[in-house]
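Deliverable D4.2, example record:
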Amino acid sequence: MIHEENSHADAGTDEPSPATVVGQDVEGNDDEREVSVKDAEPSKFAWAKAILWIGPAWVASAIAAGPATMASVLGAGSAFEYKLLWVVILSAFLGMMSQLLSMRLGLLTEDGIVSVVEKKLGKFWAWVLVVDTVIAAGLAQLVLVKGLCDVSEEITGLDARIWAAIWSPVLALSLTIGGYKLLEFVAKILVVGLVGIFVAALFTVSISSKAASGLIPTLPAGSGNNIAAILGGAVHITLITMQSYTMKARGWDMSNHRLACVDIVLSMLFAFGTYSVAIFLVAAAELFPVPEQCPVLTPTCASLALEPIAGSSSKWLFLIGLWCASFTTVGGNSVIPPFLVADKLGWGTTIKDMRFRIMLGCWAFICGVGVFLQGDLFQSLRNILAVGLIATPFALVIVLYMLNDEKTVGVTAGILANATGLLLLGISWLSIGYYLYDMIEPAVEASSFAPISDDPANILVLIFTFVITTLTFVLIGFFVREKWMARKHETRSEMLPQTLPNASSIAASE
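Output generated by the structure prediction step:
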């Protein structure tokens, strides 16, 4: 909300009138700042003010720059050398574009995305969005907690299950007491630190001239999981749905549009993009071909990539970086399911609402069971990003649907916004298709369903893909029908004034 002060400025001055912007953070506390009404007015302090103000997109960037993305780009570089560099770079641009679209929806509606969907499309579609997001974020949270506890065990020697008993209450307390501001602050610091570690490593390894060839799109055999995981790390349903809530928590509206754009470009394109590209190039230079002592890429084996900069300390430096990535992602990802569920139930989405506070704490505790998951950590991290990518097109269609509804946002999306959304959808579906092709190809070659059925997770992924993709196309059908009916009604309305004079003239002649 904006309160004008000194609205009648002196006629002899060009200085803009100040205004006070009042919002609420996730704790429900007033967050009041004085800014210029004409925020486009140049000032030597403009960038300093922007740095103090930025924040919401950094929480998304902290989640994106997590251990799953680290595992994905490390795996891609070690397995395919520089061939997937184009995917890594593309992921940063697509992540920025998806954030810009969801940011615009959040600023225009000044409400949570679930409430917006329920008002426009009804309870069913709101619940589909909630369930879709909770599945993607929930599975991710279980694996991320396992990663955090496993890395903590590797660093300290203390059993991972004990660390789960430690981290669950710590996470619950930090979220229910410290809330969004603490999360945002920690996210900024750790993301910058992570980027610094790998950029420094980049200058100590020998990058082959073959890296340039990685800018040309190619699809190496067996790369479907890696491509889906890399893109899923940046274009993810959790990052899209959380944007409206973090904007709301910061109290931003369309008057902050320019600042929000700067926030996203700095965090997703530059910070996340630099992070991903640096890790990928270091992995391609140092881990390809995969070292003989590392048939499976584990955290210890991945740490070999940092030997040129850290020597014998590379293992500990890598584990600390992986721990930082795990911590920021677990913290940021923890708030997403509670945000959406609370919004759907009509609860407050700040911890002043005791119901939301309790749900936030309980969710943090429940996810501690992730420590009991079995399997290779890095492969599990790649899989959750691929599943997240499968869940994402539905959220993208929701955002585009809302942005093209004038009653919802006040002004419909332009050609650029719609083209961006369609591009995101197209690339997401192509990546999902290639990932599924890699999954079912062994079954096709063997003329048997056994290669798929041997892993129950594959069957669950195929079922989830079928259900959410079907619902996505049904929703697209509703949108097309609505626009067609609106156009038909508009055409009739335009023709009606023309028919009335003709009817009047016939009556007069009679």
